[in-house]
Fold:
Amino acid sequence: MNYLKFMERARTEFMRSLGYQHYALAEENFQFVVHSCQVRYHKPGRIDDDLRVSARLKHLGRATLLFAQTVSRNGETLCEAEIKVACVSADGIKPTALPKPLFAKFKAQVEELG
Structure:
């Protein structure tokens, strides 16, 4: 199973829960790219498994996000990762600060989790 694709989808849904969608972000001339990741595989998943994939914002920088993510089956962790995502300009793919409204929403998420 390709856990990283599932994790990417969970991050996309996290963004959607904050009111943002990828195509709209590109229209504002920014996008997110994976900068780095640390992955720990514990057990394999199988076709037709009912998986739960989480994406929790662990750290917020001016232009980066660090997510703690897990893939589990029936409460058992199959895979866990820390994925660092960078904000870049859509036209030049150069690092750029998060837009202020989005930064504020991310900051509220981090503060809510304590």
User: Anything to note?
Assistant: The domain at 3-113 is CATH 3.10.129.10 (Thiol Ester Dehydrase; Chain A). The helical segments are 3-17, 22-27, 100-113. The mean pLDDT is 90.
